[in-house]
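Q: I have four molecules that I believe assemble together. Could you output structure tokens for the complex as a whole instead of separate predictions?
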Amino acid sequence: MSNKTGIAIVGSTGYGGVELIRLLASHPQVEVTSVISSSSAGTPITDGYPHLAGIREELLDDVEPAKIKEKADIVFLATPAGVASKLAPQYLEAGLKVIDLSGDYRLKSPQLYEQWYGKPAAGKAYLEQAVFGLAEIYGDNVRGASFVSNPGCYPTATLLGLVPAVKAGWIDPASIIIDAKSGVSGAGRGASLGTHYSELNENFKAYKVNKHQHIPEIEMVLGDAAGVPVVTTFTTHLVPMTRGIMSTMYATIQGDRSLSDFIGLYKQFYEGRSFVRIRPEGQWPATKEVWGSNYCDIGFAVDERTNRVTIVSVIDNLVKGAAGQAIQNMNVMMGWDETLGLQFVPAYP
Amino acid sequence: MSNKTGIAIVGSTGYGGVELIRLLASHPQVEVTSVISSSSAGTPITDGYPHLAGIREELLDDVEPAKIKEKADIVFLATPAGVASKLAPQYLEAGLKVIDLSGDYRLKSPQLYEQWYGKPAAGKAYLEQAVFGLAEIYGDNVRGASFVSNPGCYPTATLLGLVPAVKAGWIDPASIIIDAKSGVSGAGRGASLGTHYSELNENFKAYKVNKHQHIPEIEMVLGDAAGVPVVTTFTTHLVPMTRGIMSTMYATIQGDRSLSDFIGLYKQFYEGRSFVRIRPEGQWPATKEVWGSNYCDIGFAVDERTNRVTIVSVIDNLVKGAAGQAIQNMNVMMGWDETLGLQFVPAYP
Amino acid sequence: MSNKTGIAIVGSTGYGGVELIRLLASHPQVEVTSVISSSSAGTPITDGYPHLAGIREELLDDVEPAKIKEKADIVFLATPAGVASKLAPQYLEAGLKVIDLSGDYRLKSPQLYEQWYGKPAAGKAYLEQAVFGLAEIYGDNVRGASFVSNPGCYPTATLLGLVPAVKAGWIDPASIIIDAKSGVSGAGRGASLGTHYSELNENFKAYKVNKHQHIPEIEMVLGDAAGVPVVTTFTTHLVPMTRGIMSTMYATIQGDRSLSDFIGLYKQFYEGRSFVRIRPEGQWPATKEVWGSNYCDIGFAVDERTNRVTIVSVIDNLVKGAAGQAIQNMNVMMGWDETLGLQFVPAYP
Amino acid sequence: MSNKTGIAIVGSTGYGGVELIRLLASHPQVEVTSVISSSSAGTPITDGYPHLAGIREELLDDVEPAKIKEKADIVFLATPAGVASKLAPQYLEAGLKVIDLSGDYRLKSPQLYEQWYGKPAAGKAYLEQAVFGLAEIYGDNVRGASFVSNPGCYPTATLLGLVPAVKAGWIDPASIIIDAKSGVSGAGRGASLGTHYSELNENFKAYKVNKHQHIPEIEMVLGDAAGVPVVTTFTTHLVPMTRGIMSTMYATIQGDRSLSDFIGLYKQFYEGRSFVRIRPEGQWPATKEVWGSNYCDIGFAVDERTNRVTIVSVIDNLVKGAAGQAIQNMNVMMGWDETLGLQFVPAYP
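A: Yes, here they are, computed for all four components at once.
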């Protein structure tokens, strides 16, 4: 009856899934027709998420492709690593379009996946089919695609901050150091000592130094932009807050580039892209300034003493770093305006 | 050109004003045509709120009624106490509809206002004209009104939690005790020692015990519901979080009423009102479950040992407790569906 | 060689145990000679608590009474409910003095214990032997005792705030309503969805309304103070912070009592007790003002309109609500000054 | 009567001053005989700090040298930049020993001070007399000194993390990049929009990129260690927490150095220094693990792919970064054990 495109969300009981529900609720062209959870199928989603009372009261569906195909045209996979590699092929074969929010189809090299994720890689054919959905960089590939792999949260903030300068040859790719910080929701909803309130509140800590599985994803795209392999230093930290990622990036400048040159370069690079906002001189973005929205805000400092540029990039890890970017990819895949249903003003304060 | 109703927001640089901007950005029937600040007129709002970059770039307007009337049909006053009492009459006389978010027109008694606010009261004629805009209770008065006084944040959570039981005679009005807790954004954007980060983080404190200016507002409406004057005990606390109010309320039950009786009574009372959600047995709402939305969630416990009911009511103080409720009032005033532009899913987590 | 009294801590890997280690490190009369954990025996405590590096490097001991007796004279039991009821008798029989921080020996009625804790009660003889160690109220019993049951965190804040007025007959015991709020560390170190960072941060929630297992403990002592059985309304809430409890208490005043009467009564009642501080008129304590210390701060408001008194009492739940009070009890048991090793200035901010 | 050394604290109503009061309360060799505030002299310190009730009830003194000399032998200056440069000479001339916690005497070059602080520098003679009190590096100079300038909070965490490697020539000084993060208490107690609770909670932001006044202090000491001038890239961020600094540092390794080489080098360098703890392989310190204590914890990662070392150093900014280190300096000046009165176990959680 409805002319809207039907959407299924697999992994609805995780933070990524529940954020898709929030954001898609006001999308003008689609309707979420199936919320799916293999672990909680048959129970109402409001059992685990009372905030959805009166909004989504129906029972959770199971993951079977045929059943999903009856209700939906597009599937979002908001599942942990290792699950999408099994489910995505079935959904594609059933004729569904698939957007995978996990890491399973981001790395084109199965060897790299197995090395960094410690799990069997997805099949080669599907790896090749999956388009890396960083729409501001690879939008042409996303357009019309039926299988998109949504970038990781850290790579999104980091790559949007680095690619224009790397592509322009303005920074030395070998000099790149990335100091990244994330709110705790990036760790998902699974309870553990590492995400226990009393351990994280009033605490700031480093983790997985040089070992985060987002490193090869970042280096894959930077290498593509630089035209040569790139190796980076990448540190991740947990911030005592729920949402938000900041990537503070350092690199040695090549050529004679001022602060306003950098600002100009990025403004030009992202011209017409609504979700990247370049900050004026002397202003650096804070994570709260993009909270709840699909923006990525970027600011710069150029230090003549050291000939280095400092690039500060922020996103909401659950929106631009996950569910929002996935919807943006859907919009581009479908040929819709990429901002459709995503024009949220950041919630401030 | 646009067929949308023009909106002016006075006090745009406060948290209430900036939340109106956020919420109204996606309202289908209106357009914010003037954002106004007497203190910052002539400068861009993005100076103080960089999160609005690319969203609202124009300069702030001044408060003059004639200028506003050229651009707008409805004015929201998100100004501190003592300001609306001066501005509202001018705007009304200029033919604008006015929704006042401050406390200036809530109390019908000038004496009470002066006693609790320590400022000169608004003029008697306008006090009488102003409709108290708790739409779930006084919706009939709001419909078609041109001047609405938006309830306070604490009274909203508290009254939605108490009025049905008081009206039904199920609780003894003389026994009501209200223990309220608020996030810090309720104190506004003005910096002070009392809202200094290091003083509030990892801290929980009581303030204005028995002295909060929202007390007479609560008692005015409870008295109206009870048909007799009501005096309450009301305590306010600051919670180390930004948004959210919880009102935990205690009263002695009159008659033989079970937990499911209370749930039934409230469900019936709020039937058809989209923004009040009644929780099932054994479930109490948490403030995060309404974060960023216009919902008021209410849960109950009945203690047979003491013959008391405990009522727990939560809202987002900046939405249902301020900007969202003001927009709801606008919708009702204009004869639109009261949920128009307000169907936000709470942002969780 | 050392003349110090040897101390064993059972349950060292919980928050209560690790706080005992922190506080006892500077106690002039004792030395912690054994840190014990049944689950982690044989591993260093720094594996789970790197903050103890360089402070306590030795391996964790096991729970055997004979081994403990070789090293220690006093045992602190910082174990979950249901464990102390099994261990305490063995340690007492081995000739050790025992201070139990769990709920196993607080309620003198096995029936009440089984009803509220849902576990088998401790043996009757030991229940009778265990002294309820609220030293400001029952100090005479604690002196010279060899088995003390340390009060719960909520009861400590609540009872210190209510007993003087109840004993004096200044408030109606049947009117008492207790609205309590706690930091998250009270839930211990076990990871669960209910203590997951992203669920609690920027959130305030009620839990176990009328059902918390501390209710019978509070009513036992209030009944003792009143001379008649007392039934209360008691609500618990989780505050997004790590440490701190506030109990906001309401009661109807009996007789003609002013605010300064209440302040005078409490100052007199607690004269000579270093850890209870009574606040002057118009000042209510905040939890941060006792953070890290053994203080209980109490403030009052008297409302002539309702004839009710509001009593606000705060403690650090891990110090005065657990480890600090246990050490205070040890001091009193041993005939030492009750403040020995406990004169910490609150950590502010 | 007391044989203890008398201590005066100037600037007692700031966070540094109040932390000195907390820490010195349990120092066995000294007694705080005068707490001083030019702005609040004559009023009790408990007016602004109720947590000191029952601990320090006396009125605040004024800043006059003669009066102070009557009561004290040592003065701690916990005043804002620009104040100590005026007061310290008077106190030294009055025969008092002085420990200055501000930035006024850290930089030996008046030009650098004026450039980075934007205020007139202190007199040259006193600048030369002031010993830079990073006791782990310059302890020999501190011993017996009568005028010590206490290092800044960021420099303390940063320099303890870098000096051993720079001195050993294991890292290229020109490659050093410092990404520093601080809790909000480092900004002091003065209320401002930048430290307003609702602006900082659930927010992470960069500030003063390449412009922080601690940069020349860091470079002064690094240059001293390297034997050549050093220029660094230094970024500061605000973390939504009260206490704690983490400095994440990056540098290119010179020579063939493994992770265990670095750990060994630092363990040797800090041998016998109680307050620096070196973490084992694969463990990075978190700020909470030093909360409330005088520890500086340091961890390492070596990346063979990039030939860079990542060094993570944490302190409590109010203790090792201010008051605790000042007391440590006092201990060294007086020939006492440097840990006297500072053996606090970190408060965890």
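A: One point stands out. The two ends of chain C are 40 Å apart (CA to CA).
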